[in-house]
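hiii so um. not sure if this is the right channel but i have a protein structure encoded as tokens and i wanna go backwards to a sequence. like what aa goes where. can anyone help
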């Protein structure tokens, strides 16, 4: 388990952010810097309000999150960067807003992934598969290189792709806990750990109130 002691939910709420949305965007930034591009991301969501309800998928990767991480860049910014703090903060605001909206929809059972799964399971034997299911973009969107879940226990879980990373996390008052896993042969867990700490520190400074 890795512990980030820079801040937790108290600091983020004072800065005007929902902690989970903010940390998910920090993980998006770290994943972007790890893979060199945005990648399919799974976040577990509960649908317990429904009878027999289990889970739905929140997709933290969005057009808004992509705009934010690309503005932040593959490496931390310096004074010579064109993007201003205001630019980055605006894009972060848009990204966390979109994540919050999709999360609310998923809890209501209005995500897309269980719907697509249901459609695939409703096909009759010998029936031709809809073209959507074989579309390369659709297939890539379901390749969960980055699998995340808010958990309250330490063991975490394994990644769902050979070249993927599994992240179990917990946000406390003044710290964040992460259980990061990957295959030993790629060493992504250690690389992602360092990139995530870097992203959290950088974004924490970005939202720091002017004294």
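sure thing!! here u go:
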């Amino acid at each position: 388990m890795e512990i980030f002691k820079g801040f937790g939910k108290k600091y983020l709420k004072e800065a005007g952010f929902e902690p989970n949305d903010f940390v998910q965007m920090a993980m998006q930034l770290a994943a972007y810097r790890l893979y060199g591009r945005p990648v399919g991301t799974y976040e577990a969501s509960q649908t317990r309000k429904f009878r027999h309800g289990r889970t739905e998928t929140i997709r933290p990767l969005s057009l808004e999150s992509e705009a934010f991480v690309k503005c932040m860049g593959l490496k931390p910014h310096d004074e010579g960067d064109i993007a201003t703090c205001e630019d980055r903060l605006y894009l972060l605001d848009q990204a966390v807003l979109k994540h919050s909206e999709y999360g609310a929809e998923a809890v209501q059972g209005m995500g897309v992934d269980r719907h697509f799964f249901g459609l695939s399971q409703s096909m009759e034997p010998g029936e031709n598969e809809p073209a959507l299911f074989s579309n390369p973009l659709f297939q890539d969107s379901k390749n969960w290189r980055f699998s995340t879940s808010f958990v309250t226990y330490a063991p975490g879980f394994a990644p769902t792709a050979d070249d993927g990373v599994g992240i179990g996390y917990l946000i406390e008052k003044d710290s964040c806990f992460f259980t990061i896993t990957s295959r030993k042969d790629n060493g992504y867990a250690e690389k992602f750990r360092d990139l995530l700490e870097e992203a959290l520190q950088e974004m924490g400074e970005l939202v720091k109130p002017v004294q």
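oh and Residues 71 and 88 are 6 Å apart (CA to CA).
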